[in-house]
Amino acid sequence: MTTSARERVAAFWDDHTARWLRGEDPMPTPLAAWFDSYQGVGSGTPTRDGFPEPYHGDLLGREHTPRMVVLGLNPGEYRPQFQSRDGIFAREIKEKYGSYSRWQTTYPYNRPPWTDIIGRNRYYQARLTFTRNWLQDPEADHRDLLIFESYPWHSKLITGPLRPPAEIIDAFVWQPIAELPVGEVFAFGRPWDSLAQALRLPVVSMLGAGGRHYGSAVPSRAVRVYGLPSGQLLVVEWHAGSAGPPSAKETALLRSVLTGVLNSADDAPPRPRVAGSSGAAPTAATAGRSSS
């Protein structure tokens, strides 16, 4: 039976996480190449002591189809209390929810016990606020937001370039995003601009610092718009002193400018791909082959 890219990706990571929770360290093709594509040192050294977190949110739309997609670099610092094999989140996946994809529909970093022990997740809250501002919907909530990581293993810092192979990002990130009803995909922080260039994405527009002035009140703000294989747009934004999303006022300005970019290109709104769009996407069967 033909499955969608989202279903294939979810099944791949569900299988991988289940094996990891059983004490294995599976690295099926193409995970070894993905893991080796970042060579961090010191506090930036990646670890496989915690389970990888390739995405955050309801990938399959079991409860609600996401209306906003944001890209991250990696899932951040490894916290054994939560992410080790006997950690709180590992036990939740294994004993309560049964799979990584089901567990992610509960938005674990935005609820207890994480918020009780670690505190409010400012990274997540900033992106949820941006979601509400961009959608012009103050009622938008965690169900509307889906985050993909370019590198799914934990490290406290990023201390070197991220160079994930383009075919891996296509299979694990671009293809599932292409099935979602979103016209724009967002990434915040300059490292994603370097990553977009390394992935050889075509430039659609250069706005702000180093490009065409568009009225931003922040002189250092730069916006780069890239085309994705689906016809959707990747919008990368950064400014001095912060890797977070823009304010509500700056978001409204950016929305109006991007509408003009689309209109000037005489483009119709991108359509999500149909299910089963490519055989290159990962499948659960590939988890049976270990490459390390």
Short description:
The protein is α/β, with parallel strands linked by helices and 292 residues long. 34% of the residues lie in helices and 12% in strands.
Relevant terms:
single chain, 292 residues, alpha/beta, 7-stranded mixed β-sheet
**pLDDT below 50 for ≥5 consecutive residues: which ranges?**
266-292
* Morphology: globular
Q: What is the count of β-strands?
A: 7
Instruction: Give, in order, the helices and strands.
Output: HHEEHHHHHEHEHEEEH
Task: Please give the domain count.
Answer: 2
Number of helices: 10
* First-to-last CA distance: 30 Å
Mean pLDDT: 90
Helix content: 25-40%
Rg for CA atoms: 19 Å
The largest sheet is: 7 strands, mixed
Strand content is 5-15%
Strand order, sheet with most strands: 1-3-2-4-7-6-5
What class would the helix/strand composition place it in? alpha/beta
Description:
The chain is an alpha/beta fold. The chain has two domains: 1-123 and 140-164, no CATH class; 183-265, no CATH class. It is 34% helix and 12% strand. It has helices at residues 5-21, 31-36, 80-83, 88-97, 100-104, 114-117, 122-135, 166-178, 191-198, 248-264; strands at 55-56, 68-72, 145-149, 184-188, 203-208, 222-227, 233-238. The chain has a seven-stranded mixed sheet with strand order 1-3-2-4-7-6-5. Helix 1 (5-21) packs across helix 8 and helix 7 packs across helix 10 (248-264). The longest helix has 17 residues, at 5-21. Residues 275-292 have a biased composition (Low complexity). Residues 263-292 are annotated as: Disordered.
